[in-house]
Design goal:
Keywords: Signal. It comes from Actinacidiphila rubida. InterPro entries: GH. This is Chitinase. The protein is of the alpha/beta class. It has a single domain, classed as Glycosidases (TIM Barrel, Alpha-Beta Barrel). It contains 12 helices and 12 strands. The protein has an 8-stranded parallel beta barrel, surrounded by 6 helices. It has a two-stranded antiparallel ribbon with strand order 3-4. A two-stranded antiparallel ribbon has the order 10-11. Strand 1, helix 2 and strand 2 form a beta-alpha-beta unit. It is globular, with a radius of gyration of 19 Å.
């Protein structure tokens, strides 16, 4: 879960997740292989929130944007710190309605423009846009009830316009409109079919699920069973989002193991998810704290989980070892309160050093499919 604006609805959802995350296994299962023998991350990305708590409601001065975010394109030796940036967030209802106002043009935040996309792609970094976020959950529900097919078509047209992929961040914890979301995905895929090669950036379509299997349960079950299989993939992969606060290494591994194993005791059961079909997420800045994820890779949870994630074995789905990679929440200013990842808190020593230590490929290679 991510809390972009610090509003009442976000904190209420955070409280739900704190309760859901309170019961975790005492110890995470051991990794099936060492990091040396495991699979290096293929996805190593950051959600990007601009300077206004994820609204992107102003056009950025690109010199200022570079000063605030240079660490993303340069880990200190000229190589990018990440191979993916996800610009967060597009309001799904605003996109459906094609709203033009002070912060949007034809339904798209004015700050999510070609200049920002090119800033990253010119350095070999893939770009996606995230539709939703917890603040826009009600707007997802409204848009899916009104015209999910048109919403999917508009998302596909936006992907074509900017040359980007799309992420579904629909955080409806109970009774999500999966039929509407299916129609959205069908419409998007009609324009941009699944591309196993990864060559077409507009064909990249992903979804966010909870840190483990005990929140967003209905969405998790439906997505795992219908969209994230290795035999007939519809979405490229899922992101297991951050929990309410930075987990310990063992806590993170326990959450991610839930996706690997599924929940056979649920009705309907959540099937196992192939390691190659999801990433795990961690904070780089959280509240008033800059995490070691940003500044000190050797002491970070990323480092502490790296052997486990690279050696994570299939537990009922998939054939290859190792999770797909890591995502980090969030670059620049993810909330109106709290720290940012702008200088002096830029993240070359955390995310950037991790890219070197984990031999992250830039640009992103074709992703494992099984």
């Amino acid at each position: 879960m991510r809390v972009p604006f610090g509003n009442v609805k976000s904190f209420a959802a955070a409280a739900v997740l704190v309760a859901a995350a309170a019961v975790v296994p005492a110890a995470a299962p051991a990794a099936s292989a060492s990091a040396a023998a495991g699979t290096p991350p293929q996805v190593y990305g950051a959600w990007q929130c601009s300077n206004d708590a994820c609204t992107w409601a102003t056009v950025r001065d690109m010199a200022d944007f570079d000063q605030a975010n240079h660490w993303l394109i340069d880990r200190g030796d000229g190589r990018p710190s990440v191979n993916l940036v996800v610009l967060s967030f597009v309001n799904p209802l605003t996109l459906l309605n094609g709203t033009t106002n002070s912060g949007n043009t034809n339904g798209v935040p004015v700050g999510m423009n070609q200049a920002v996309v090119n800033y990253f792609t010119s350095h070999g970094i893939r770009v996606m846009l995230s539709i939703g976020g917890i603040t826009y959950t009600d707007d997802w529900n409204t848009a899916l009830s009104q015209n999910p097919t048109l919403l999917g078509q508009k998302a596909a047209a936006l992907a074509s316009q900017l040359g980007v992929g799309m992420e579904i961040d629909y955080e409806q914890s109970a009774g999500p409109n999966t039929a509407g979301l299916q129609a959205f995905i069908d419409a998007y895929r009609a324009a941009h079919p699944y591309d196993a090669s990864g060559a077409d950036p507009t064909a990249r379509l992903t979804i966010d699920v909870a840190a483990g299997d005990r929140w967003l349960i209905d969405l998790d079950q439906y997505a795992t069973a219908n969209w994230l299989t290795t035999s007939k993939p519809v979405l490229d992969y899922a992101n297991a989002m951050v929990p309410s606060k930075q987990p310990s290494a063992s806590g993170a591994e326990s959450n991610w193991q839930e996706h690997l194993a599924g929940k056979s005791n649920y009705s309907p059961a959540i099937p196992p998810l192939a390691p190659a079909k999801f990433t795990g997420s961690l904070y780089i800045a959280e509240g008033s704290q800059v995490r070691p994820e940003c500044t000190d890779f050797p002491s970070s949870v990323t480092s502490g989980t790296s052997a486990w994630t690279q050696g994570a074995a299939p537990a009922g789905a998939g054939t290859t070892t190792g999770m797909l990679g890591y995502m980090f929440w969030a670059a620049e200013r993810p909330s109106t309160r709290g720290v940012t990842t702008t200088p002096p808190n830029s993240c070359e020593g955390g995310v950037g050093a991790g890219a070197t230590a984990l031999t992250v490929p830039v640009p992103m290679p074709p992703l494992r499919q099984n």
